[in-house]
From TrEMBL:
CDD domains: NAT_SF (cd04301). Transmembrane segments: none annotated. Residues 32-122 form the N-acetyltransferase domain. It holds the Pfam family Acetyltransf_1. Keywords: Transferase. It comes from Paeniglutamicibacter cryotolerans. One of its GO terms (molecular function) is acyltransferase activity, transferring groups other than amino-acyl groups. SUPFAM superfamilies: Acyl-CoA N-acyltransferases (Nat) (SSF55729). Gene3D superfamilies: 3.40.630.30. This is GNAT superfamily N-acetyltransferase.
């Protein structure tokens, strides 16, 4: 039986208590991780029985040398190893992409070329196209910038017409299980709303 996963959306940088809890999901919550959290426009959190088991961020702290107009990065996605292969990554990814497209900017994501699982995912996806490869500023290793294939910037660059202008009231994908208001114990965060 699959565990019941709940999803929470927050449209602002997390509070210090929430930041600490989210940081525990990452392999290395370094200065760059905190820059992404500081510039967060959307934080999607997956929870199982109240414990955080996954996180994904849409942020504007873009350091990759993208040529995209108004880039918003879908960065810092992590799922606890015990909860992988349950569709959590896909739910977080779909929610982030839908939201980023609704912002009117150009959604990008940056993949370390050594990450075979991410490479396989993006290479077979019709939602993403390679923009360019570069040497990572922080790692010194080959990285690839992927751009959302539905973004107006990518479609125009490819000689295609835009699909639909940004819709500020866009409906985010339904979570496959319940939803949960995310706030630390004893804390109320008015900027968090149920998924």
């Amino acid at each position: 039986m699959l565990p019941a996963i709940e999803y929470s959306l927050s449209f602002s940088a997390p509070s210090s208590g929430e930041r600490e809890a989210l940081s525990s999901l990452t392999p290395s919550p370094d200065a760059r991780w905190h820059e992404k959290l500081d510039a967060a426009k959307l934080v999607v959190t997956a929870l199982h029985e109240g414990s955080r088991v996954g996180v994904g961020i849409v942020h504007t702290s873009v350091t990759a040398p993208t040529l995209a107009d108004s880039p918003v990065e879908l960065g810092a996605m992590f799922v606890h190893p015990a909860y992988r292969r349950l569709g959590i990554r896909e739910q977080i990814a779909d929610t982030r992409l839908t939201y980023a497209l609704s912002m009117g900017g150009t959604p990008i994501t940056v993949i370390d070329n050594r990450n075979d699982a991410s490479w396989r995912h993006f290479a077979r996806s019709t939602q993403w196209a390679v923009e360019q490869e570069y040497t990572g500023y922080f790692t010194g290793l080959p990285m690839t910038i992927w751009v959302a294939a539905e973004s107006a910037w990518h479609r125009t660059r490819s000689g295609l017409s835009s699909l639909v202008p940004a819709q500020p009231g866009i409906v985010l994908p339904d979570a496959p299980f319940g939803s949960h208001h995310l706030a630390s114990a004893g804390e109320s965060d008015a900027s968090s709303i149920p998924a």
